[in-house]
Each structure stands twice: as structure tokens, then as C-alpha cells.
Amino acid sequence: MEVDQETAIARFLSLARLCHERRLTAVEVIHQIIHFYQEVRIFTADLDKDDDMLLFQWGASRNLLFAEPTDLRPLKDGKLEFDDVESAFLEFTRQVFAPGDDEEAEFDDLAIHMSIILLYGPASGQEQGGQLRISLKRADDDVKEFVSQPFVSERLHADPTRYVSLVGFCG
User: pLDDT of 113-144, one tens digit each?
Assistant: First the structure.
């Protein structure tokens, strides 16, 4: 289904609420985010130029204190609060640059992210972080590579301690 960016964001926020409410594990979130990526196309984003891609990340970081899926775009930076400590995390992000007919459009001005972050308690300080791009054409192979990472595989079926789902600008 092809939709505009705002419709895709609304669908993502509904998906994120489902993940939070059902307390989905990482393996279940992977299935949901891949399905969303495959089924919901944003008609002004060019897949051949990587204007619409998935980025899966893992490691440790401080995270924003939001209990509900939140669209950060209308919020001011001063209203954003972070955890006091770093947490181990798995993050599933869809990045979209949808310039439409504007050939002068800049990535930093228009690109958005839609992220579901699963937190697994305080970080030990020994976490090895990383990231992996997931392409539409190679999604199965890319996901196999992601889940083979030791940090990731240890958390695939674990219950997250907290969920953070955000929409915001990339730039």
C-alpha cells in the first residue's frame, strides 16, 4: 500500500502502541517492523536511493523518558528528558527521506525516523554496540545477520524492562 508520510507515521505509532501494550519481545518486534516496512510504502521516498530504509542498532545508551509512543517533531529540545543511567538496548528504526518533487531538498531538513527501542535494564559498561542496515530486497538475510550478533541473540526472547517509541527528525 502506498501512503503519504503522515499516514505512515500514524500507522507506525499504532504499531508501536501495539508493541508496548502486548509487551512484545525483540523477535516479535522484528517481525512487526519488517512487515510494516514491506507493506507500507511512502510514495515520495525512492527505495533505489535508500530514501526509505531500516536501521537496526544495539548497545548501551541513555534514552528519552517517554512511556508512550511519541512524535517528537512538534516538541522543543528543552522539554526532552533522558534517563540518568545507560541501558542496554535494541533499536529498530525506519528512516525516510521523502522529498517529493523538490530536487533541492536536503536530507537534514526533511528526513525522519520512526524508532522502537527495547531497553533491558542498566548497562554493564561492557556492551559492544553496532548497527546494521536492512534492505527491502535482502531483508531475510540481513535479519539473520542481525540476530546472529551475540548481544542481540541474548535478548531476542527476553522481556524488555521498558519500551521507547519515537518519531522525529534525523537531522
Answer: 999 999 999 999 889 899 999 988 889 999 99
- What is the C-alpha to C-alpha distance for residues 60 and 107, in angstroms, rounded to an integer? 26
How remote is the C-alpha of 2 from its chain's centroid?
20
Residue closest to 13 by CA, chosen among 128, 165, 168: 165
DSSP string, 95-138: EE---TT-TT--HHHH-EEEEEEEEEEE--S----EEEEE-STT
Number of C-beta neighbours around residue 36 at 10 A: 20
Residue 77 CA to residue 95 CA, distance in Å, equals 20
Task: Note the residue count of the chain.
Answer: 171
Query: Residues 18, 28, 160, CA angle at the centre, nearest 5°?
Result: 80
pLDDT reading at 170 higher than 90? no
- Whole-angstrom Cα distance, residue 42 to residue 37? 10
Nearest to 112 by CA among 91, 132, 98: 98
C-alpha cell at 159: 522481556
Grid coordinates of 147 = 540476530
